[in-house]
Structures are given as C-alpha cells and as structure tokens.
C-alpha cells in the first residue's frame, strides 16, 4: 500500500515525466491581495499568467497546493467533521498547461496516472462532461467526450450542467467546460445493486469527485459574449486526501495515514478510541482537521486575531476547542499537543511546518487557554442561571440568558443545551432566536460596525461590504449602496 507521502510524490513525478516543472505550493494565507484571504485552489497562484498579465515561465507546471475553503463561495466549514471527505485545509494536486497541450493530453494523462500508474480499477471510474447550453450557443463538450470514450464505456460518461461542468473565473475573463472524474469506492455487493453512475454528484460518501479537469478555451467579454481564448489553458485539481482514501482502500479520508496518526494521539489524550461512537468521532475528525488548518496558517504568518483572516483562523480554533470540550471532555488546552505528530507526518513535504513548530505550539496553547477561560466564566454563569431557574421552580432558562452566553461567552447554543440537558433543564429556543434576530438588526443599524470580516457604514454611503470571492476569486471588491 502506498503511503500518502508516496502518493503525493508519484503525482508530481508523473507529470514531471510529461515535461512539467514541479513548483512549490504557494502560501495558503494570501497577504496583500484585497480579493482573497486564503488560497482555495491550485490555480490561484497562476491567475496572472492565465489572465495574460505575466508571461509563463514554464508552459507546463505541476504541484501540490495547500488550500483552505472556509469563506466566500467555497465554504465547506459546516460539513467538516460531519462528512468524511470535505476538509477545511486540504491539498490539491494539479497540472497546468499555459497555451501548450489541451484536452487530449489532459484526459489521457489523467487516465494514465490513475489506471496505469496507481492501478485504480477503471470499472470504478466515471467522467462528467459539459452537456452544453443552447441559450448561449454552447455545444456539448463532444471533444472531451470523444477522448473519454477511448478509455471508458459510454455509460460511464455522464452529462453535467453549467453549474457543475462549466468553469468561469468571474463575470468576464477566461472560462470553459470541465470534466470531473468520480470514483465509486463501495463494496461489490452495493455496486451490483445501484450502479455508480446514479450516485455521481449525489453527495454519496463512497462515490466521490476526485479530480476536476478545467479546459479554458473562451474569453467572456464585458457584453457577455464569448470569444476563443488565444492561449488555451489546462487547469486541473485533484483532492489529495480523497485520492489517498481510494488508494488505501478506506471508507473515509480520516481512515488514511494522513489523519490516523493524529486521531490516534487525540484518542490517547482523551482516553477514547475512534470508531466507537458517532458524536466522539465527529469531534475527533473536527479536531484532526482543524489543527492542520491552524498550524499551517500560523506557519504562513497568519496568527489568530480579531480581524479578517486572523478572525477566521480564531473561529476555526474555537470550533475545535468547543468540540473537544463538549464531546471529548477536554477542559484544558490539548490541541497544541497534536503539533508534534502533525510535524512528523507532514514536515517532510512542508519543511516550513517543522521550522515553525515551537511558535505553532505556543500560539495554539495560548489561544486555547484564553478561550477556555472565557468558557469557564460562562459555565459559572450558566450554573448560576440553572440554580436560579430551579429555585424558581422552572425547567427552562430564558432566551435572553442563552443569548448572553452565546454573545458574550462564545457558547454555541448546542453547548448550552447540552449542559442544560445534563442538569434536567432546557432553554427557550424561540426566545433565543428572537434575541439573535434583534442583534442582527442592531448590527445592521449601527454605524461603522466592525464585524470582523467587513465594515458597514451609515445610510446613504457607498459601503464596502466584503470581498466577493467568486470561484477562483479573481474578482472585485463588492460595494453596496445603503438605503
Ligand atoms: P465537491 O463537489 O466535492 O465539494 P468541488 O467541486 O467543490 O468538490 P473543485 O473546486 O472542483 O471541488 O476542486 C478540485 C478537487 O478538490 C475536487 O475534485 C475534490 O477532490 C477536492 N476538494 C474540493 N473541496 C475539498 C475539500 N473541502 N476538502 C477536500 N478536498 C476537496
Ligand atoms: Mg465544493
Ligand atoms: Mg463538485
Ligand atoms: Mg469540482
């Protein structure tokens, strides 16, 4: 069985053998770009080449890119831990052609890598192709389909709509159809019952998208019309952790050697084992996922803070602390203790992680301790609320009280409910929602309220309301006229 590190190596070496230059991952945290906080796809670092602003130093490149999808159009945060194949931080393996080869090579090399090099059973692979959009005069991507037909039976090639199979950089600029490779990892008996093609693109945890091949062949002009792109671009992205799951015969990304060593240490520290109980498992997955995001962000120079990218990282760390506190019984800082095993696993591929280990541990520990103190204060307050309720013969605490815990002490409502339930009490859900709504209105009405990610100004002013992270984020700051 190939290890994750071997799988990553084999990808870039394969494309090197096809004339690609291996380049390092760009930082995951993007500084000095008002349009994007975090790298969310391999192509981000090549944006200027694709737009024609910079000449390409190499016409063919390949890499493994650290990506983070926790804001804007690509926000997978709420899924993470609950499903088994979306992460906050993940690695995207990619190969690019800038005005060099196009669909034929992109498709046949993808196939060669998966089937000939990695020996994946072709019977389990499916490809989607753009079905066309007659309204725009766009035909089905018969060209891509014709190349897939050389490798796959017709019923493994599936039409996809504009949403899934046509990629646009923004309202204008390079765009084109894409083909996605999906893999069916279910056991034989299940595959016999329902064919994989019926589950492609249906959020099935064992029939998943692994690789997106984008064929940029048009330029969309300001009037919305399309013209052929002079230098066509191939842009591919494959989910590394998903590929590891497929290669290692696992049912979840978390069962691979990318996550298992971390999960093992979490279990040792928390006195539990993975796979016993769904709630504990979710918490272990959340912590294992989030520690990577936080460690790599700090490495890239983004510490947790109260604004913008730093606030996003702080919220992710607090999400991990809350899951660990609630479901793993961790009342003291412990996430920082996972850093050594992470460095051991990933420090080879990402030496910057190893170089910053001491700083990473120190920052995470301090951040955990500060947040746990707030949680403790909140818990003392909640204890008093519960005693008062009981003394008054009530079985419920008010929405206002639950909201105070949420707003001032960072208690998510489910944590409050959990503690109440342990004490035979409940919270007024409706009342809580009313307070939540009131607060949103207050925020909207207040002048120049810093909400962390954006600032809202007064009536009549043109307001900067945030960054518009369209897919692969080329775009443009978003402004709104306040009525
Ligand atoms: P999905 O539909 O599963 O959310 P996507 O279509 O949003 O994936 P792309 O933007 O096409 O993903 O990115 C290329 C590849 O990166 C995907 O085929 C997938 O393998 C992987 N990928 C995307 N999002 C994640 C994530 N949150 N965690 C891990 N891998 C991911
Ligand atoms: Mg997605
Ligand atoms: Mg998709
Ligand atoms: Mg995709």
Walk me through the structure:
The chain has two domains: about 5-255, Bira Bifunctional Protein, Domain 2 (BirA Bifunctional Protein, domain 2); about 260-395, no CATH class. The strands form five sheets. Strands 1, 2, 5, 6, 7, 8, 9, 10 and 11 form a nine-stranded mixed sheet that branches. It has a two-stranded antiparallel sheet with strand order 3-4. It is globular, with a radius of gyration of 24 Å. It starts with a helix and ends with a strand. It has about 475 residues and is of the alpha+beta class. Helix 8 crosses helix 9 (about 280-300). The protein is about 40% helix and about 20% strand. One magnesium ion binds next to strand 10. Keywords: Aminoacyl-tRNA synthetase, ATP-binding, Cytoplasm, Ligase, Metal-binding, Nucleotide-binding, Protein biosynthesis, RNA-binding, tRNA-binding, Zinc. It comes from Phocaeicola faecium. It catalyses: tRNA(Ala) + L-alanine + ATP = L-alanyl-tRNA(Ala) + AMP + diphosphate.
